[in-house]
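thought: fold this chain, then report.
action: predict
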Amino acid sequence: MFNVFATGKSGMTAYQEKMDYLSNDLVNSTTTGYKGTDIGFKDLMTESLDRKGNPIVNKNAVNGTGVRIGTNYANNKQGNLLNTGLKTDLAIDGKGYFALQDPDGTISYTRDGNFKIDSNGSLVTASGVKVYVQYEPGFSEGDPAFDSDNIAIDGQGGISMNIDGNAALVGSIPVFTAIGDKGFVPKGNNMFVPSDDAQITLSDDYDIRQGFLEASNVDAAEVFSDVILTQRAFQLSSKAITTADDIWSMINSMR
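observation:
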């Protein structure tokens, strides 16, 4: 009987967590480059029913003890590309992520190409995180300083600038992907990190579109449907607890 309470509670907790993720997806349905979350569940520990005082015919029978949220991954479906006309706005048409480098050297990944040029002439995100750029020999970060009026980025991420009247390739923006469909997990702030068993590699199936941004890939109608199903599952888990409580009360009231 007590197992019913524990199992019901785990179900309520898991579906509440799923509801939180779905709510986050809805809130970010208009966020540039946002990737919806694929939510997975895992069984909690199972226990054997073959024990002293409880003989059974099927010696392999087990009793589940509940469920919990597993590892959640980014849904890699591409969103629509929106034309902005801004030279620092970039969208990846295809597979892959831009790399971002925090001051401590930590690398994160994003599809949000809403970039800008900071006071040091570096390409950064809207929140100021540096975009990872591979510079050509003779060039480095800030030398030359990027200028939104003097920057051209080709389909493979090559960055060209007009220097002393001549077009020069100063660097490139690499695009990375992970082997396997479940390579990236959400970090927050529209950034991702590789999963524990992911192998990061350079993408070869993409085209960078300058002057475009990728819209969120969240389908609001699909999420709303999932919200309804999740609410029903939460209610069923709650019903299991109340039903078990009713039975328990009935047993206690027996004379």
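thought: worth noting. Residues 2-75+218-253 form one domain.
final: tokens above.
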